[in-house]
Amino acid sequence: MKATTSFRRAAVAWAAGGEGGASAAEAARARAADAGVRRVVLVEGDSDLVALEALAERRGRSLDAEGVSILPLGGAMSIGRFLALCGPAGLDVPVAGLCDAGEAHYFRRVLERTGSGPQHTRADLERLGFFVCDADLEDELIRSLRAEAVVDILGEQGDLRSFRTFQKQPAQRERGLPRQLRRFMGTRSGRKALYARAFVEHLDLDRVPRPLDGLLAHV
């Protein structure tokens, strides 16, 4: 197991709290040292992690080698626990992050509570290294690639027949192609992460979604 993967698992266990919290904290600190963690990026889920790592690779960067570790929160409401984990009483490392537009208020509220000052706008969040996807990662990537190109990628992945069946569902018939594609991404476990990598691999690097571009530039 890679040192960064081991650290990620230990950090998630530490953030979960409960019995064994002290030993989980000790393990996470040890794994962070093993992995050379110097900065943490907090994201909502695995697809965000996959997309950021894939984009960094395309730009010739190794986040692991740079000491940048991406931690999936498992939901935006966990942001407070993970910020505490990374703060002065925890790992004491700089933190950045990525979230969906609908969850930005959780990030904003917790950052204000932890002493970062008022975060009224996205620009305020970005100055701290936190970037917001509009509406979410899949929406950003579909718009950057354009919907017709995304359909081609579905074909490459062997999902085109499933998507055509999905389009025939009554709830989907009135939706435009971009919205259908976005909804389709969430219809099977693991699909978002699979396509996060596929989409990034097909991206024109001059059309990288602004939140991903800004976050990688920040770290």
Can you describe what's shown?
By secondary structure, the protein is an alpha/beta fold. It has 2 domains: 3-137 and 208-218, no CATH class; 139-202, no CATH class. The protein has helices at residues 3-16, 21-35, 46-58, 63-66, 79-86, 104-116, 122-127, 137-145, 147-156, 160-167, 177-185, 191-202, 210-218, and strands spanning 39-43, 68-72, 95-100, 130-133. A 4-stranded parallel beta sheet has the order 2-1-3-4, sandwiched between helices. The longest helix is centred in the N-terminal third of the chain and has 15 residues, at 21-35. The two termini are 24 Å apart.
Structure summarized in a few sentences:
The chain is an alpha/beta fold and 219 residues long. The protein folds into two domains: 3-137 and 208-218, no CATH class; 139-202, no CATH class. Helix content is 59%, strand content 9%.
Distance between the termini: 24 Å
Mean pLDDT: 93
- Sheet-strand content, in percent, reads 5-15%
SSE order in H/E notation? HHEHHEHEHHEHHHHHH
Strand order of the largest sheet: 2-1-3-4
Q: Count of helices?
A: 13
Shape: globular
Low-confidence region ranges: none
Q: Biggest sheet, in brief?
A: 4 strands, parallel
Structural class: alpha/beta
Relevant terms:
4 strands; four-stranded parallel beta sheet; alpha/beta; 219 residues; 13 helices; single chain
